[in-house]
Amino acid sequence: MEGVPYAYTTSFKTQLFLSSALSSSSIITIHQKRHKTILKSISRRNLVICASSGSSSVVKLLDYGAGNVRSLRNAIHHLGFEIEDVQTPKDILDAERLIFPGVGAFASAMDVLVKTGMADALCSYIKNDRPFLGICLGLQLLFESSEENGPVNGLGLIPGVVGRFNSSNGFRVPHIGWNALQITKDSEILDDIGDHHVYFVHSYRAMPSDDNKEWISSTCNYGDDFIASIRRGNVHAVQFHPEKSGDVGLSVLRRFLDPKSQGTKNLTQGKASKLAKRVIACLDVRTNDKGDLVVTKGDQYDVREHTKENEVRNLGKPVELAGQYYKDGADEVSFLNITGFRDFPLGDLPMLQVLRRTSENVFVPLTVGGGIRDFTDANGRHYSSLEVASEYFRSGADKISIGSDAVHAAEEYMKTKVKTGKSSLEQISKVYGNQAVVVSIDPRRVYLKSPNDVQFKTIRVTKPGPSGEEYAWYQCTKSLSYAHPEWLSVPKVNGGREGRPIGAYELAKVVEELGAGEILLNCIDCDGQGKGFDIDLIKLISDAVSIPVIASSGAGAVEHFSEVFMKTNASAALAAGIFHRKEVPIQSVKEHLSKEGIEFRDCFRNDLFVCNHYI
Ligand code: 1PR
Prior knowledge:
It contains 17 helices and 31 strands. By secondary structure, the chain is an alpha/beta fold. It is globular and about 75 Å long.
């Protein structure tokens, strides 16, 4: 084992048995969990060994049930710690170490905290300088008040008002994605971060001022400088999500959970950065004819092999592939249950299981789509789309994606001009926030001789159509349900989809108004073709809305990623086929972005990780 670096903490001496099979390109961490030692391989870069200290392996979690904290629970367990849920204010006062992952809206969170007596307990716990980590809303609630549906009073421990990001200066709101921090003071829990990116998802933020400067440990720039973390004594809070920030995020949690195990400090100072462009791996999943849930991939949405058997193309197992993409450096993973609309996702227990298992080991954001709509089962039991989405969130999704039902909602809204508040989009974004709701648009290009041939937004295309047409519009499509009376009669093309009388441009503008926080922009013509993204379409939509747009469909080479980022305002680029067929590794995409000077999340540098003892 010559040359293998390792560190023991003084309080926890562990005998290491390192198999000679361990290569120098893996990282090993030893955790203490119920007095057992676990040797765990958690990364694939340099070999790093660390041991957790003998401090208590139980952390108290304040989860008031307003959203998904499964990922945080999974991250804590992954690091070898046990969780006890806070049930009463006394549990807070008795906690040795407390994590408060704020979820949902500021006002409703304060409401619950005040009604349950937790607000007073939290204030006294924090004033007594007890070990505390607030996450996201758990940071914002420490301030005096928030403008979110307000003003609403907060816990009032830190001077300042939490306000909304200003989108008028061209910055997309919500702020979704990976930024580096400007570290302003020693925070201990941030010691491994240096200039690595961490994951943010929020529309509101606290601003630095003279009154609160003694609390601030880091800021981040997104239009303005906002507070990314605070630290005073044992009290910490972060606006970003450590449980979704990959290895570097896990290091933040570990440093809070086990301060005695801290290794040497990463000397790289955080520097201001722009929002990194995201690279997303997408897994289209469906049940094949044998009844197995498989990752499939279409050509222009046709997912069946062109053989006599006409089987559903099978490219692998969802949980394994998602885990692989996380290790390969994907900034997000999306699952699209492509037949969910026809079948009803809550009947699809394997899909929920896939999500639960994936979230145990994948610590970047997970999106799931397919079948989010109201549904009545064979026994007459009605399920609202909100119930369907809630089940997805409970199972580990950070965002849900709505396709067909958003087309329906947009058509209704364009007809009536009335926001009913009843569409899945409106209901889910109201409860979970618009940053948790993606709308998936599935348009196909329709060429035109003249821009006046249709009532929808048209563009002059970069490459003329097959008959020399110079214009096109992008017609939205949606899935039909088997139960739909039109299932047999409507002509269905491209994976059982029907064309609708609404353009991608009109749909994008309307869904933004109805509460979408992000757009996943597919293109049926380009899907699976490997010839590059539809730049005309992505430019059209990313210029039309002020929420982030994910470019999808058609990636076939690393250059396609830089092209879409340089020629359009897309915030992220998603690909499926090239990753599944192992034609282009995610790392190559990132190396290419680096060469082109495009900011991206680099999780392959040797200075990264948890224990800071490097080869
Ligand atoms: O309508 O709310 O039930 O959602 C269904 C979801 O399933 C939608 O997001 C829709 O895009 C997706 N979907 C429906 N049918 C298909 C199909 O392929 N037959 N897949 C399908 C869409 C498109 C992308 C794909 C990219 C990248 N797949 O997600 O992964 O095009 O592929 P590439 O890099 O190989 O070109 P609802």
